[in-house]
């Protein structure tokens, strides 16, 4: 069978063979053996260097290929010849195709796509035994296709400042060569999850450099690619235990770079989604390292301008920390108050929603530590001129767990909130806010009538003092005006 493969390898296509593609399984484009990297293509797809003889197996199949050669299907050869044929196909798929025009190289594109599909099916099948040499060639091919220069961001192309672009309104960039790239990702995913692949062997190829370059691809504008990256990285984290600290540290470094350098939020949501699953597996009590990253890397993400893109994933991570270790509730709540928005109402609504989720898993003992600064901020939200902010703050009283926490600390909370409620009752322009404020006020009264009356009395005294001070101020200004007029005369 091996002799048959070698004979077929020397056969060239004539014109009739090129017209009849149905009988062609795989094809190799001609190339010159070199160790230098090929120049980048005009399509933005990186050109990988052709493997040197030292990088490829010492076998005639891996010499510089002719213009075109036909390879049989993996299932049609004997098991002894299958490894060499697999490496030949993987080596062939390292070549790049020009996707700038659909009319360029249509036959080669289809043949490469079919070959990648065959490799995916081979890894997925029960007969897909992959030795160390095959793995090396496979990862080399995956790297040649995946690791490339990414196209610039939209604002880098248009010249517009990054802060003037709303990421939610931008149309995502879609890779033109995704039909091939998707299969490469699928091939890598099959390789990582395969039970036939031993981590001790695979770590020679899935090393720190590979993982680092994989993380760099999260900057891709194509959401389909980021979704595959998320799945692959999560599987690597689960299978390669020795890579876990490095992956966590690298993700946090990406957050630092985003916060203090680029402010480009592409891929942050997917990384937070991975991190949420990672946090769920942390042991209790929480290690000091994890708490440090919560304070230094995760909570500061709340100050981002593009938080609306990844807030759902960020909120999930924060709540996971509190669920894992209830003692972190005070740290998280004070962190939210530290980065609380002052002029962005939409962001404030997001913060109130996240605050409710955190309070829902907060223990009474930790709630007492931050009750005063927390409800001072909630009181400001109650009096917000934006009805959505005021309404969202009042909705906190619809949560039974939060109402229970408030009831246990009513002596501290009532005096802080009562004034804000009275101000809403007297002067808020929105009827819905007015009605909700009245409901909360009634709830307070039913909770502790004596304390409510005391707060009402205190509020009346404060109002009287404020009126008196206002009258004194007006009298002082009046005397100053009279003195000024007498001096002028």
UniProtKB/TrEMBL annotation:
Gene3D superfamilies: Leucine-rich Repeat Variant. Residues 19-45 have a biased composition (Polar residues). Residues 46-55 have a biased composition (Low complexity). GO terms for biological process: signal transduction. InterPro entries: ARM-like, ARM-type_fold, PP2A_B56. One of its GO terms (cellular component) is protein phosphatase type 2A complex. Residues 1-65 are annotated as: Disordered. One of its GO terms (molecular function) is protein phosphatase regulator activity. The B regulatory subunit might modulate substrate selectivity and catalytic activity, and also might direct the localization of the catalytic enzyme to a particular subcellular compartment. Belongs to the phosphatase 2A regulatory subunit. This is Serine/threonine protein phosphatase 2A regulatory subunit. It comes from Brassica oleracea var. oleracea.
